[in-house]
Structures
1.
Amino acid sequence: MTVDELRAALEVELAWRQEELAFFKNQLNEIAEENKNKYRKSLVLILYSHLEGYIKICLQTYVQYINSQRLNRRDVNTGLMVASMHKEFVAYEKNIDDQIIDTESNLWYIVLQKNLYKVGLPIDLFDDCQSDIDALVNRRNSIAHGNFRSGVTAEEFSNWETKVYEILSAVTRLLYDYANNEKYLA
């Protein structure tokens, strides 16, 4: 896989997610004002799903890119070196298992940090979004488990949507930068 193929894969993955969210968000125009907050509850579930799904897939794609470079452990940064040893004691594999990425079914901020660390990326990248990420996970869980009955305001949803898009775009740029400038090397 080339660096341009990596970027293209990330952009395709991000684009379909943005299009789907836009589709569902546009349905708000057809919903009576008194039901919009209720409808936004479903948008929170979709927004969270795309955050978790994109993070998992883009980090796995980045691992696949690094593996395609056919590097030895000694050639990569410490985080990747450690990640590559995940199955070492079991199977003595040379490359990094792309299943090393685990969102733990709840992409709390600390879980995001763990996954960034596993692939040798800065873990403080989204410190300014920590409370928003955790609040989104909390709300998603409350909605999904039936504990949250009231709706989601336009302001709440807009804030989460903005933060999620910032995170997804930043991850895309970061992975491309790391791949393009070979920052994964030791």
2.
Amino acid sequence: MNKKEIAELKRLFTLERSPVTRICGCYVDAEKNKIAELRHPFQMLEEEEMFKYFEIFKKTLSGTVGKNLLDLEFPLEQEEEGGAQEFLYRLKCSALDDNDLLNEFYDKVIETFQYPENYYIILIHCTYDIPRRAKDGMEMFDASDDVYEYLLCSICPVKLTKPGLCYNAEENTITQRIRDWFVEPPVTGFLFPAFTDRNTDLHSTLYYSKNPDELKADFARQLLGCQVPLSAAFQKETFNTVVADTLHTECTFETVKNIHEALNGLLEERKDDPEPPVLDKEDVRNLLSQSGASGETLEHFDDSFEETAGDEHAELLVSNITNTRKFEIKTPNIVINVKPECADLVELRVIDGRPYFMIPADDSVELNGIPVRTVSAENGTKTD
């Protein structure tokens, strides 16, 4: 799924366009006991309650594709009888009106979701008449040939509110606030089936993780039967390690700066594409070569990539391995942050056998927010 397809589904969560037919929930305590369950048509809820749930549903479809939102493809064995995909398909077809299937789903989540505190499992069934798209991209809501039927699961922490004081209107006094159990935004969830090319994709699911560096891969593998890709942090670590190990003595300031600029240029070039750009092994090899790495250095690239990434077919999301907001130079004692478009202002020079980073100080200079005077390199006079 791409960001446009995800945005299309998020826009449905309003009172006027709501696709939700039924909502089910299970409140679980820290000891994995089911404390409370609910199951009823979504329209039975009060409007204010609907709005709160809409926010949760939207959060489960929020974040960056490739970081927080991951397309997972079901292995073929998971689509056979007894597999994770086959179970979810039966659950979807039941429209959440089968108590046995619901309890089995809750039990699967409780068994596989490792969380030390209370949490709330929310599962909704939705139907969406997919509007046709005119040539100009406008949606024609009165023309629909396909219906997208899907489940959305959100798993939300439930925490006790902090103690404090509040105003008691009945007694007209300040008193201690009653502490309640509060449902927080989801930490993980999934959409099944996926909405690929604006239609039902039974072979895939969209997986959500609030923290892109903690994807709960074991949970996704056990509950959904899918392999989760490398986390954003691990992708960046993998890329940095491959570059350093491959280039070795050729890992110079200029070469790494060229790599950084090439990656940011690729992101800028593809910024309007619905699919985020990714690099496979050959793409990374070409990037290093174009940035100045010699053919002799690249002889060890394959071994370094496969050993570090753990898979020769691993893919790295470009937005995960570069920083478009800053160009950072770090030494044991000093950190320099430069705007990426100004990276060319930084030069590495060797003076009396010692390397120095040279940065022009022609513009106004501040120290801890205070304007300071600089010394002119030409005549030694102080300038503003």
3.
Amino acid sequence: MKRVFFVAGLIAVFAVSCSDGKTDNAADEAAQDSIRIETLETEKDSLMSLMGEISNNLIEINGLENIVTSKEFKSESPSRKREILNNIEAIKQELAVRRQKLEQLEEKLKKQNGYTANLQKTIDSQKQLIDQQNKKITDLEDELAKANIKIEDLNVRVDSLNTEVSNVSKEKQIAEQKTEELTNQLNTCYYIVETNKVLKEKKILEKRFLGRTKIMEGDFDRSAFVKADKRSLTEIPTGSTSAKVVSKQPADSYEIVDENGYKVVKITNANLFWEKSDFLVIEVK
């Protein structure tokens, strides 16, 4: 009977011992998981910080590129060009360091359980960005090299450049003058205010078969018309108590009003009024 109790006691002790062992193992694993998660997050933070630095490099390179490729850069002093070259070299070295950091981070992250395809894509995109920046730096160095070569004959070219500028200015002035002349021509209009008799004498009005009246269809007297500008001509006093528009101007583009006992033709829609003809014929009595 004592032996039975002794064996039972051993089993109980063993069971308790096993239970405590499992608890300790679970706690250790949880602690390790926590450390791994914390490490992964820290390395992710390092990656984000590095991405920010790489982006800042891109902003700096773009700024230098704008300077080097600008027209004003040619007139920069040699010391200013050297300063820009030094800045480019410094960025070049920074990119090399960041490329190395990126590769080290990649290696560390790959050892973590939380490493994903998205993280790999992010790292690959940053590598490509660094490669692009290095290519831009190479291009800028080439531009600076060309600038240093060209600076020697820059003084020789100053006179020819000034001449070119002068010629361009003259051409621009001529073009502007021609544009103004063309605009004035397009806005030139003509009008005449006369009696039926005078209009016929000048062949502006012509009676045809069955009493039909033709307007300015033959060799009419253009010198009888008054030259004006469509942009400023808004009304035509007729000096008569009776007046009508006999040319092709649309009826809804003007009105005839009385002012001080005389008729005045007022243009209410200039674009429509001159759409069909640049000639206005007003017949008065």
4.
Amino acid sequence: MNAHSSVSLRYGYAQRFPNLRDLYQGNLFVSYRSITDKTHTPQPEASHHATLHYQYTQPLKGFFLSVMSLLNITQKHSAYHTITTPDNQIVRRSLVDADYQLSTVGINGRISQALSFWKSLLAINGSCMLTKNAQYGDEGLQTYNAHIYSAALSFSARPLRFLSIELSTLWQRSKIALNTDIKTDRLTYQADFTLPPFTNFTFSINNSVCQSLDIDKHTWFTDLSAMYTFKRFDFEIVVNNLIGQNRYEQEFISSIEQNYYRYTLRPREIIGKISFNF
């Protein structure tokens, strides 16, 4: 458009053929509690994809803006039918013949501004994704809407010659609208500090907090690393999970299911690394 603005429009058409997993005739155990029935004969699926991208840059003022919208339409020929065993221990998914359209529309944007003090950069990201899909239920083929929202704020700076800071926070919401609405909210905080006190020595501290608002669970991780460079050799010591968290819990939505996961972690580990270039 001009020296600072540009607009691009892209369109694509694809004919997706079944992959090796879809061609397999039998049951696939995708987890300890999930079975996917692959006795259905898959068919090729046609899809249309379009994106519209606007970008504005002002390098002298350190201002950047990017906005992109997308549209994807796929002609589906089968849908999943999900049932559980009588004891509610195993989830079984089977493909059933069905003709419908899977459509996705979304928009995401990013604004960033470079600041004069501390050689810093402030950025804001946001996205919204809406999907219309279908799945077999007790009443036959049922359509449902899936909404995914996210917002992020990040800040990076170098207040001192030997100190770099990177801070960020991310909020994510997943929502499914079928007979009843279900949703999950997650927050993630990240704080990284890098200290190069000498030319060949770098010390870094990485902190992250993962919080699942629906189940009121949060987990804090702290990792330390120190690396020394001598000629072509790098010597590094990494301490992961310094605080010693041994459990990580989260809840998220997949398709029309609400899943809860609990992970058992190593309380702490120390790794030594040596690498070289030639």
